[in-house]
Amino acid sequence: MEQGMRTFSKSLTVLGSILLIGCVGYLMVGWFTDERWGWVAIGVIVIAANLGVLFVQLKPTPKPRDWTVDEVRTLIEPVHGEMAQIRTLRRADKGLPLAKAVELVAQARIGS
After folding, report:
1. Would you say residue 96 lies in a domain?
2. pLDDT in the model for residue 34
3. Alpha-carbon Rg for the chain in angstroms
4. Is the pTM value of this prediction over 0.85?
5. How large is the greatest C-alpha to C-alpha distance in the chain, in angstroms?
6. Are 40 and 73 found together in one domain?
7. Total domains, the chain
8. Which residues have C-beta within 8 Å of that of residue 28, sequence separation ≥ 6?
9. 65-74 burial by CB neighbour count: b if 16+ within 10 A, else e?
10. Is residue 64 part of a domain?
11. Whether the Cβ atoms of residue 65 and residue 100 lie closer than 8 Å to each other
12. How far apart are CA 95 and CA 39, in angstroms?
């Protein structure tokens, strides 16, 4: 269910961004012909921001790998502090959710 809501939310965000780009682009034609340069500049900024939103939403997210406690322990052993260890683990695996990283680091710290 959570994955379905995430997909629905992503779809609505993409749709809204595309609609906003289209509407502002249409308005910019009129602003450009009327020589309203301030509004043209604002329109360009709004379109650029929405293109950024589209890029972030459509970028594929990597799949997390399956970590063993020993692998996590080896990775985080030289790092001091639980938060730094969680950050280190998430940098090593870009697809790993925060909650899973916290759980893995806790398991690795208990075992050491």
Report:
1. yes
2. 96
3. 22
4. no
5. 70
6. no
7. 2
8. 39, 40, 43, 44, 47
9. eebeeeebbe
10. no
11. no
12. 40
Nearby residues of 77 by Cβ (< 8 Å), 6 or more positions away = 112
Distance CA 81, CA 84 (A): 5
Contact between 66 and 96 under an 8 Å Cβ cutoff? The reply is: no
Give the whole-angstrom CA distance, residue 81 versus residue 2.
31
Which range marks the domain in which residue 7 is found? 2-58
pLDDT at 35: 94
Do residues 73 and 32 share a domain? no
Look at the block and give the residue holding tokens 């052993």.
77
Helix ranges, the chain (H): 2-33, 37-58, 69-76, 82-92, 98-111
The answer on 76 and 33 residing in a single domain is: no
Q: Tens-of-pLDDT digits for all 112 residues of the chain?
A: 566 777 888 899 999 999 999 999 999 999 999 999 999 999 999 999 999 999 999 988 788 888 888 898 888 888 888 999 999 999 998 888 889 999 999 998 886 5
